[in-house]
């Protein structure tokens, strides 16, 4: 694909619970230097009353710019969590989860069901903004079978009367009854055009699009009509796609070689040593060769790691194996 120079816009990787943990994010940062990364959702009770908040909140400076995604429904708790994120951890910004449809989150009255209460969402965002950090909200188009664009526009208009002017829109509804979270990322129809229309109707707001993006062509086609795009599953399963998009946007010349990316992880795994068992890092690397020759052999190699060994030991062994495969021309790898 020919690289085109586009001046502005954010490419980001979506918050994904259990997937975008700190090790995954560090790896993704090696692939994509210009992406904005998000934590998994962390709830305010986990920060304020949890046994070990640092487990969710600590991160490596190299992950920056990193946004902490918060979940909660209490403005006062939100303000306290936001101050902790700023003072104790140094996050670049905060994001409010108004998109998660899981039963657990609904029980806590936050996530997607907050779309019913834009005034509370505004209060929560104002509480987060009291930390002085930039804030954004990630939300859906609507709930259940709501089919009117005006409902979405009213939501955005109402939120925008507060401090938050930055909206990341997962371009499908959340169906709160009858679908599990995975189905809720597949079955409700995608409507990218509603997000594009939001940008036209609210040109002063920052509007980013998320949901169902699979390749660089789609991103390039949407890029001029929104302020940014966020990729979730496609970035996780095919991380080099992020580098392809950076290249297509004229933000980098060459694509990184998978082996160079793995080598870039060595100082990180060495610093962690025995504290980082191999599976905690390697589980995020399955897609490294996605679409490249040797993808299957790579996944087999990952499967050969022993749960008891450290990531540092396993990664070195894998680099050696890749080197010998390459010498034997078993794999045409970078
Ligand atoms: C395993 C998994 C966990 C997720 N966890 C979160 C989360 O913690 N917070 C959130 O806002 N969205 C979460 N999502 C939704 C994604 O952020 C994203 O909105 C959704 O996957 C649609 O984007 P995609 O089609 O590019 O994957 C999760 C998605 C997946 C696949």
TrEMBL record:
Q: Which GO terms describe its molecular function?
A: flavin adenine dinucleotide binding; tRNA binding; tRNA dihydrouridine synthase activity
Q: Where does FMN bind?
A: 15-17, 69, 138, 170, 210-212, 232-233
Annotated signal sequence is: none
Any idea which UniProt keywords this protein has? Flavoprotein, FMN, NADP, Nucleotide-binding, Oxidoreductase, RNA-binding, tRNA processing, tRNA-binding
The similarity comment for this entry is: Belongs to the dus family.
> What is its biological role?
Catalyzes the synthesis of 5,6-dihydrouridine (D), a modified base found in the D-loop of most tRNAs, via the reduction of the C5-C6 double bond in target uridines.
PANTHER family on file: FMN-LINKED OXIDOREDUCTASES SUPERFAMILY PROTEIN
Full protein name = tRNA-dihydrouridine synthase
Species: Igneacidithiobacillus copahuensis
């Amino acid at each position: 694909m020919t690289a085109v120079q586009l001046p502005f816009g954010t490419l980001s990787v979506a918050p994904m619970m259990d997937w975008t943990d700190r090790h995954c994010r560090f790896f993704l940062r090696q692939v994509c230097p210009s992406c904005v990364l998000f934590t998994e959702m962390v709830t305010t009770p986990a920060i304020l009353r949890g046994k070990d908040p640092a487990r969710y909140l600590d991160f490596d400076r190299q992950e920056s710019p990193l946004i902490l995604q918060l979940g909660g429904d209490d403005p006062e708790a939100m303000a306290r969590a936001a101050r902790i994120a700023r003072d104790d951890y140094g996050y670049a910004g905060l994001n409010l989860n108004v998109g998660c449809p899981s039963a657990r989150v609904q029980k806590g009255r936050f996530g997607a069901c907050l779309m019913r209460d834009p005034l509370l969402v505004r209060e929560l965002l104002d509480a987060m903004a009291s930390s002085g950090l930039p804030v954004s909200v990630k939300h859906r188009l609507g709930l259940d079978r709501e089919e009117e664009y005006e409902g979405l526009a009213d939501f955005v208009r109402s939120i925008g009367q507060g401090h938050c002017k930055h909206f990341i829109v997962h371009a499908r509804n959340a169906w709160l009854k009858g679908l599990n979270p995975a189905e809720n990322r597949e079955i409700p129809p995608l409507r990218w055009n509603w997000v594009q229309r939001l940008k036209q109707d609210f040109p002063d707001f920052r509007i980013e699009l998320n949901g169902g993006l699979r390749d660089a062509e789609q991103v390039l086609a949407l890029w001029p009509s929104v302020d940014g795009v966020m990729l979730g599953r496609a970035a996780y399963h095919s991380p080099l796609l992020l580098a392809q998009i950076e290249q297509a946007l004229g933000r980098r010349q060459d694509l990184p070689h998978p082996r160079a990316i793995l080598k870039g992880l060595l100082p990180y795994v060495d610093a962690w040593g025995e504290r980082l068992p191999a599976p905690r890092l390697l589980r995020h690397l399955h897609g490294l060769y996605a679409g490249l020759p040797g993808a299957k052999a790579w996944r087999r190699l990952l499967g050969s790691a022993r749960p008891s060994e450290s990531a540092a030991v396993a990664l070195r062994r894998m680099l050696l194996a890749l080197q010998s495969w390459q010498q034997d021309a078993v794999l045409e790898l970078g």
